Amino acid sequence: MQQLCQIVLLPEFSIIFIVPFWSLLLSRGVWDAYSTLLNAWIGPI
User: What is the pTM of this model?
Assistant: First the structure.
């Protein structure tokens, strides 16, 4: 019974921890790309 609970709960916990990590990673990557683009656009002015 305890093993069954672990098997059922583990995916939920991994989703709880993995989703914020990936969203942070993606938003950071998007921000880096945006700031790079902004610097390339504003740079020559």
Answer: 0.37
For the chain, what is the largest distance between any 2 Cα atoms, rounded to a whole number of angstroms? Answer: 67
Reading the block at residue 11, the tokens are 């995916």
Residue 37: both structure tokens together:
């683009």
d(CA 26, CA 4): 33
CA–CA gap between residue 16 and residue 38 (Å, rounded): 33
State the DSSP H helix or E strand holding residue 37, giving kind and residue range, or none if neither.
helix 2-42
pLDDT tens digit at each of 45 positions of the chain: 566 555 556 677 777 777 788 888 888 888 888 888 888 887 765
